[in-house]
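Entry 14. Structure prediction run on the chain below.
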Amino acid sequence: MNALTILNREFAADRLFETGCHPYQEIVISTRCRIARNRADTPFPHRLSDEQRNALAEESVDCFRESDFFRAGQVAEIASLDGRSRETYIEHRLLSPQMDFNRSGAFLMTSSDGCLSLLINEEDHYRVQVIFPGLQIGLAVKHAMRFTDELAQNMQLAWDKDYGYLTASPSNAGAGIRVSALVHLRGLASTGRLNDAIIAAQVVGCSVRGVYGEGSEAVAEIYQISNQWNSGIEEQEIIARVESAVGYMIAQERQARESILGSPIRRAALKADVLTALEQLVETDMSLAEAASLLSDYRWAAAEKIVAGDLSECDRLLAIVTTGMIMRNKKHHGIVALNENIQRETIRMWVQAMVSRIQGA
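Output returned:
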């Protein structure tokens, strides 16, 4: 079994890690649009009985299974997923590590390409999500709104003339939309200018958090930039704020990378450091934290064309490593992390392939 077979994890929704040239991929790993909607005159999921949640879920799955968006996709009952399946969905950012995996009546529907998903009975009755590789905010929002419009045609949604769309969390009420970009800020972290850039993003109404948003930590210098508020703000203004914050981060990160790698000597030094670290890790056991640090350096060097490498392949493995680190602290949710020996072997096989690629370049 080769490294790519292991990395695939037997999961069809692989568009997020599709090999190719994606917009601003050297810094932006992915773009996500998430829209929260609830049924009118129906209590939020946490106020429903198990029987009521199951009935809502059954009706919803039957309805949307016939939609063009999900007809060829997958349906999964969250409480029935084993630990490996949960981790795989989290790696693809289709589920959150903070959710209650034992709640009855919670389902996940995914499109055939994995770009579109519908989470039923988590915090809200419906969470529509679209995720694309690279920076594609406008396309992600447009795609998510297309299905949300279909959702509105099939049922009456909870909406108030003063507050907008009603949601379980007051911070999501209003437009009910969360737009985010996952960015790799290795240069800003190295120059000590990251905090200043985060403050600047907050000024325009955006949050900068860890890999999985609120309550999560930053791993491998990867951060999520998203809108802070929904209430009293139109959809287009939310998009404009996130685009402004992400654009600023990209410009600052590019400046930071140029200041560090502006000379051939420094570029050669980074290549030597990355290759040495890769070779050492082939021969030794490593912690997930050490693997994350190495992958961050490798992604940086590959993005700057200092070493040969596929950024999508690197992002796939980063997702495995960062999820593994976070899951170790989530056992109270019933999540069983993948055996670390399997994770190490996956990483080691990938590292061996990377060393051969760099040496052959």
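Residues 3-8+262-360 form one domain.
Filed with the rest of this week's runs.
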